[in-house]
Amino acid sequence: MIVTVLTNLTFSKTALKMSARSNGVSVFVRTRPSVNFAQDLIEYLPDQKTINIHMKKDTRNVVNNQQSDWAFKMDGVLHNVSQSHVYEMTAKNVVLRALDGYNGTVMCYGQTGAGKTYTMTGATENYKQRGIIPRALQQIFRETEERSEQAFTVWISFLEIYNETLFDLLSTLPDADSRDSQMAIVDDGNGVRVKGLSVHLTNNEEEALNLLFEGETNRIIASHALNKNSSRSHCILTVYIESRSRTLSNAKYVTSKLNLVDLAGSERLGKTGSEGQVLREAMYINKSLSFLEQAIIALADHRRDHIPFRQSKLTYALKDSLGGNCNTVLVANIYEEAAQIEETLSTLRFATRMKCVQTEPAVNEHIDPVLQVKKLEMEIRQLKNELAIHDSLANRSLVSYDAMSDTQIADINFQVHRYLEGTTDEIEIVNIRQIQEVFAQFKVVLHQQEQEIEAKIRQKYTLIDRSDSAAIAAAVKAGHPVDMVGEVDGQGFGIGVAPSAAKHSGSSIVSAKKAKMKKGKEMISPGRKDGLVSPGDGKEVEMGSLSKMYQLVSSTKDLESKEHDVHSIESHRSESACKDDHSRPNSPPPKSEAFEDFKSERGSEINRILKENKSILLEKRKKVKELMDIINYTKEEIDSTKQALLAKKQDRQLQGQYVNEEGETVIDEEEFDLIMKLKELKTSYRSNYDALRNTKAEDQYCQRLVEQCRSRLLTEFESWYNESYLIPEEVQNALRDRGSIRPGMMPLNRVLALEEDEQERFERLHQELLSSSPGSISFYNAHMRTQQRKHCFRARSQAQPQRKRAGVIVPQMKNKPPSILLSSS
Ligand SMILES: Nc1ncnc2c1ncn2[C@@H]1O[C@H](COP(=O)(O)OP(=O)(O)OP(=O)(O)O)[C@@H](O)[C@H]1O
User: Fold this and answer.
1) Which positions does UniProt annotate for ATP binding (predicted)?
2) Rg (CA), the chain
3) Cα–Cα distance for residue pair 300/27, rounded to 1 Å
């Protein structure tokens, strides 16, 4: 788990520079109050930012012969102020900015015993005197609760650098990686990290404090002449924060790293009077602090290209926390006594140099690729919905944006044929996909025509390969005229007129060729190639045939029974779904692909009915067109016959009419034929008109059937897709089995587990007692647990003293892990 966390936490160098404003490191001086305040030497100016040091020239402790007075201007001098004031002034903003995605570092520097640990950690037994780290942890979790629109994840690591060796102060916890791996600082281009350092997921303030106190307990404590309990190591508690938006499907998220650093004492060697191991410790500390100083000097000098971060573990570990894109704060802890004035001066000089270091705080923003894909998918869905609304408003409800079906392609092919024949003047444009298909079908038809022409030529002529001189010579010898008419299809054939015998006798070569051509023709026949082949028998569909008319009637009449079939498919769907033995892929396939699968499997029956109805609809449309052509033609005939009759009548009247004995007008034979023709034409017109009306009604009916079938196919597909790829299997099983877990119901064993036991009742009462200072509950709980662990540790280490090894805390030093982490593991 820890390895995953480490790899997920990438603090990218490519972070967007949200705030390109250049800042200096903020530097504060904090004094350790003393009854022996050296008021002659140290002066605090009322601006609460300046501290003056006056050294007497004749003093034995003179530091610099040339200079005796110094003025140090800082961002604040924290003299006789509370822990809470120190936090507000130094760390509060850095913590807030860390929650916004900016890296931050708060670091305490100063002489041993000057109050670094007091400032950074504070008194663990007193809530009011807690230091920067517990306050920062409290602020982080309070803020994360308040910023409800964001989801925060917080991890913590605790590193100690002792004698240039790295130690994981949290390696004693059960969820730390137990492998005895050597730790190393690595800079992999995504920022500096410590390989092998355990990083712990932390859900609340108390868990975070438990980690702090656990680490503190594990710190190396060496005896020392100046301060018996002072730490001889550098400690870096790092809080990693990741923040993602809850409300939006926002693929962007920010990360940050907050380093809270307690450095080892900065005093010089001679004064400590150390020897042995303590001397070695002091040497290491001096070395690393001197490298820190060198790095700071280099950082403050803009002309320097190279910053010597790798000289010591401390500077390397703090590489991206001193300058760069980080909000950095230094607290310089000083004594107020005259005896420590040299170290105080040295600390203040260091602080001044640090103040010259420039930083460019920047938000570490990242994009989650998985969320980004989801967001884009959602956008596509929304655009599709909008398109559907637009289409329905524009009366284009039949337009589909899915991949073209075989029937649709066949329909387009048919329209292209008609366009080329001249039977239609236009092809209705529906959407881009359809336009592309129209062009594709033009290509298909063109290719077919080329093939047909070649086939016709082959029927008439024997083709000889142009390069085959022997075949040409043989043909000439046989008396066949050879006519080199050029290339067909660029294949280098010579075309010769076939002798009549060859054309009709069916010589083996020619008949074989013809047979081959026939086969080829079948293969490239438009109907076959474009899906106009009837599914069962492989024969071409005869458009508009009577047999199809009967099929239409049966199809339309039987629609209800077909719908019944669809329903029965639906009722058996869940059963077949259980039987489907396909393992679900990690990510759902594209819908277009899945739709093809669906049509050939679960949706095959509906798809078949849809196809059938579509082909019937196509025939109806063709029939309507034919009838309209006939009617139009008949109408024209009627009009011209009427004209002819009128002319005849006028002619007759001009010439004078013949009347028989009964007084009836006598007409000639031509006029009689015209009258009879008109009568026939009118009869034909009426019957065709009736047929047209009926066919149109059938056409509309078929149209409705096709729409119903299509929408059912789509609905079925949607639920099949959801079941197969989207709804988790356990949810489906739970709902299908109707077992103990049902939506809205909590399982009985969980309900029972919620009952309070004795321990929990005790803890509740304990917390009620602390309710007068509610913010302190987490602090005291964590403190109480730390105390228990300390007792346990002391008892064990007294029984069996052990030496410390690099890389991990030796098992004998292992503390009882915080119960909260035990219970959560
Ligand atoms: N501002 C302060 N107010 C009250 N007590 C303080 C203050 N600063 C330091 N102390 C006390 O001084 C003692 C030494 O302080 P602390 O251990 O923090 O020094 P340190 O700089 O961390 O030393 P080391 O470098 O050895 O770790 C502690 O007992 C602490 O309580």
Assistant:
1) 110-117
2) 47
3) 14
Residue 242 dihedral angles phi and psi, to the nearest 5°: -125, 130
**Complete DSSP assignment for 237-256:** EEEEEEEEESSS---EEEEE
C-alpha to C-alpha distance for 67 and 555, rounded to whole angstroms: 110
Query: From the CB of 120, is ligand 1 less than 6 Å away?
Result: no
Q: Which atom of ligand 1 is nearest to the CA of 119?
A: 18
**Are the C-beta atoms of residues 716 and 603 closer than 8 Å to each other?**
yes
Q: What number of other Cβ atoms are within 10 A of residue 195's Cβ?
A: 14
- Does the C-beta of 114 come closer than 6 Å to ligand 1? yes
Mean pLDDT (whole number) for 354-369:
84
Average pLDDT over residues 34-62: 82
How much is the mean pLDDT over the chain?
73
Q: 33 in ligand 1 pocket by Cβ < 6 Å?
A: yes
Residue pLDDT, tens place only, 652-709: 888 887 777 777 888 888 888 999 999 999 999 999 999 998 888 888 888 888 888 8
Specify the DSSP class assigned to residue 124: T
Q: Is the CB of 347 inside a 6 Å radius of any atom of ligand 1? A: no
Binding-site residue positions: 110-117
Supply 702's token pair.
């078929």
ipTM reported for the complex, 2 dp: 0.98
Q: Binding site for ATP, residues?
A: 110-117
Atom of ligand 1 nearest to the CA of 230: 26
Inter-CA distances, 671 with 13, 597, 605, 661, Å: 101, 69, 61, 20
Tell me which residue of 520, 546, 544 sits closest to 532, measured CA to CA.
544
What's the pLDDT score for residue 109? 93
Q: What is the pLDDT of residues 373-416, one digit of tens each?
A: 888 888 888 888 888 788 777 777 666 777 888 888 888 888 89
CB 109 near ligand 1, within 6 Å: no
Closest C-alpha to ligand 1, atom 12: 115
The pLDDT of residue 17: 36
CA of 201 to the centre of ligand 1 (A): 30
Ligand 1 close to Cβ of residue 265 (< 6 A): yes
Q: Is the dihedral of CA 523, 527, 530, 533 positive or negative?
A: negative
> What number does the ligand 1 atom closest to the CA of 227 have?
26
∠ CA 401-404-406, nearest 5°, is 155
pLDDT tens-digit map of 710-720? 888 888 888 88
| Residue matched to tokens 């759902």 | 588
Pocket flag, ligand 1, residue 230 (CB < 6 Å): yes
The alpha carbon of 333 and the centre of ligand 1 are apart by a number of angstroms equal to 9
Beta-carbon contacts of residue 160 (< 8 Å; ≥ 6 apart)? 166, 167, 168, 169, 215, 218, 219, 220, 233, 234, 235, 236
Atom number in ligand 1 closest to CA 118? 18
Spatial distance between the Cα atoms of 109 and 333, rounded to a whole number of angstroms: 6
Identify the helix (H) or strand (E) that includes residue 156: strand 150-162
DSSP labels, 697-729 = HHHHHHHHHHHHHHHHHHHHHHHHHIIIIIS-H
Q: Does position 549 have pLDDT exceeding 60, yes or no?
A: no
State residue 360's pLDDT score: 80
CA atoms of 292 and 313, how far apart (whole Å): 10
CB 299 within 8 A of CB 307: yes
Please compute the mean of the pLDDT values over residues 572-596 and round it to a whole number: 63
Q: Is the CB of 333 under 6 A from ligand 1?
A: yes
What number does CATH give the domain 2-11+25-35+78-362?
Answer: 3.40.850.10
